[in-house]
Automatic annotation (TrEMBL):
Stretches assigned to the Ammonium transporter AmtB-like domain: 35-421
Superkingdom, taxonomy of origin: Eukaryota
Residues spanning the membrane: 32-53, 65-83, 117-140, 152-173, 214-232, 271-291, 297-316, 328-347, 378-396
GO molecular function: ammonium channel activity
Record-given protein name: Ammonium transporter
Alphabetized NCBIfam families for the sequence: amt
PANTHER family the UniProt entry points to: AMMONIUM TRANSPORTER, AMMONIUM TRANSPORTER MEP2
Length: 465
């Protein structure tokens, strides 16, 4: 069955009280059902990132990162419905950013989407919203253990508006300048630089993950969600989408192998669970721009190379004199650059054509200029996102009430205690550790229990029996 055609006179797809808006998609239901399913599993990346970041952080900051993952999703959803979607995907967009044609999701309903005619626009809107939410969460994570929650959420709203949406328009909107170049991007550093390093004088736990199990669980959810991230980016249920999903798993697996190999050699035949998890994420990031363009064996090469490159840059934070415990730039920045470059080398038309529509080739097909196009994409996106992100942080830094960094004393004791009601911590052992200032420091008399065994009453809601 042929795909429905967008009608400018009825941009919403029609009044459901007068016509059957489902009729144009009869026989095509499997396409949008598949994409809705992909969107649902992409959502799992959101708690996955929260668990990953919570496990990598020190225990006294883990709660903040879990809470922040849900809050970022909520704020980004509002931003997307308010004006994010129209800035990125309006049909009347310019080469750099969209207009207000779909402000407040006006007319975003049953008409064929701008990304694919076989899916309704509301399905496309939901799917792309989840991309935005995951990206904002990754970026905001760069301020972990020293950034206040409210300013971080405000930053996330405006970062999505002035960084993510324009770049999405450049890359995926048919009117975007990178889309027309074309650069090949199948699925798509400021915070730490501006906030400065964490205070960790005398803290032996600095830089060490407090819960490797959470890191592992978060990685598993991210890996699973990435099947939807890449597998749905064909925007149809074609063979190309299935190849993209296969390539996703392949690259993540070889990413694990690459990172573990580097750790095994570097650390004297020792293994690292966290290293294996970082390798999987590096592989996922590396294959994202290439998933629907390369053969499975080349996907394996991309995952392996990306992970090895990222693993060899373990001292990147020291070289750049920044403190980014979540390795946002190393994994997602460097990993994305490597993946984009390798896409220019390995993209082949016989894979991209599996959806029956797309023809795209790289150097392996004799189109060497595609490597230069990928460099143009890397340079433009990297420069724009870094400079605008830093500018946004500096602006917020000087707005009353929007100072980003918590006080040094609060950072020492733990951002969780500074940002949450004490009742919500729920673990009195953790509460005692975080609230050391409330303890009574006494010298035990002969015959009395040691100080650490003495139960000290707390005031208010923190009272112990």
């Amino acid at each position: 069955m042929s795909a429905p055609v967008f009608n400018e006179s009825i941009p919403s797809g029609g009044n459901p009280l007068e016509i059957d808006v489902n009729a144009p998609y009869v026989g095509l239901e499997y396409h949008y059902t598949y994409l809705v399913f992909c969107g649902f599993i992409v959502w799992l990346i959101i708690p996955g990132i929260g668990l990953l970041y919570g496990g990598l952080a020190r225990r006294k900051s883990a709660l903040t990162l879990l809470f922040q993952s849900l809050m970022v999703a909520a704020v980004t959803t509002f931003q997307w419905m308010f004006w994010g979607y129209t800035l990125a995907y309006s049909r009347t967009a310019g080469p750099f950013i969209g207009d207000m044609a779909n402000f407040g999701l006006k007319n975003v309903m049953a008409a064929p989407s701008p990304g694919s005619a076989v899916i309704p626009e509301i399905v496309f809107c939901l799917y792309q919203l989840l991309f935005c939410a995951c990206t904002v969460q990754i970026v905001v994570g760069g301020a972990f253990e020293r950034g206040r929650i409210v300013p971080s959420l405000v930053f996330g709203f405006f970062w999505a508006t002035i960084v993510y949406c324009p770049i999405a328009c450049w890359t995926w909107n048919p009117n975007g300048w990178l889309f027309k170049l074309p650069s090949l991007d199948f699925a798509g550093g400021g915070p730490a630089f501006v906030l400065g390093k964490r205070k960790h004088v005398g803290d032996p736990s600095h830089g060490r993950p407090h819960n490797t199990t959470l890191v592992f669980l978060g990685t598993v959810l991210i890996w699973f969600g990435w099947f939807g991230f890449n597998g749905g980016s064909a925007l149809n249920a074609s063979v190309r989408a299935m190849v993209a999903a296969f390539n996703t798993n392949t690259a993540a697996s070889t990413g694990v192998l690459g990172w573990v190999m580097v750790d095994y050699i570097k650390h004297g035949r020792k293994f690292s669970v966290v290293g294996a998890c970082e390798g999987a994420i590096a592989g996922l990031v590396g294959i994202t721009p290439a998933a629907g363009y390369v053969e499975p064996w080349l996907a394996a090469v991309i995952g392996f190379i990306t992970a090895v490159v990222c693993a060899l840059l373990q001292n990147l934070n020291d070289w750049m004199h920044i403190d980014k415990g979540m390795d946002v730039f190393k994994l997602h920045g460097i990993g994305g650059m490597v993946g984009s470059f390798l896409t220019g080398l390995f993209a082949t038309s016989k894979i991209s054509a599996l959806d029956g529509v797309t023809i795209a080739s790289g150097a392996i097909d004799g189109v060497g200029i595609q490597v230069g196009r990928q460099f143009a994409e890397i340079t433009a996106i990297s420069a724009y996102s870094f400079l605008v992100s830093c500018a946004l942080f500096y602006i917020l830094k000087f707005i009353p009430g929007m100072h980003l960094r918590i006080a040094e004393e609060a950072e020492r004791d733990g951002i969780d205690m500074d940002q949450f009601f004490e009742e919500q911590i729920g673990d009195w052992g953790v509460f005692d550790e975080f609230n050391k200032r409330s303890r009574v420091l006494a010298i035990s008399a002969p015959g009395t229990p040691p100080v650490e065994d003495v139960v000290v009453p707390m005031d208010g809601a923190g009272k112990k029996d």
